[in-house]
Design brief:
Elements lengths: L1 E9 L1 H24 L4 E7 L6 E7 L2 H13 L3 E8 L2 H9 L10
Antiparallel strand pairs: 1-3, 1-4, 2-3
Length: 106
């Protein structure tokens, strides 16, 4: 399974729901949503600043994780963005590929 970093921000209504559900309730809901597509919530942290929540997720594929994001965002209560994560070994594999690329104007 691949790992992803998911950033989430709540709308004002989303924060009202968070106060009602509590953080533990939101975590349980996210775990259930992830499990429904074969993904697993590895870690979930609440934060402040640009993101209200950050999560590390193991997902069988990108489309499964996108399905969860679409469902969450369609409520209008949260907005998500997702970053694929690569291991050091995967990054080394990418480095070894030796892509032939010419930058603009070079």
């Amino acid at each position: 399974m691949a790992k992803y970093l998911v950033h989430a921000t709540y709308s004002a209504e989303g924060f009202k729901g968070l106060l009602k559900d509590k953080a533990s309730g939101r975590k349980a809901a996210v775990e259930k949503a992830m499990a429904s597509v074969g993904a697993k919530l590895e870690a979930m942290y609440f934060s402040f600043g640009d993101d209200d929540v950050v999560m590390i997720v193991d997902s069988p594929d990108a489309s499964s994780l996108m399905a969860v994001g679409l469902s969450a965002c369609s409520t209008g209560l949260a907005r998500t963005s997702t970053t694929p994560l690569l291991t050091v070994e995967e990054a080394d594999q990418a480095i070894k590929k030796g892509v032939q690329y010419r930058g603009p104007g070079q």
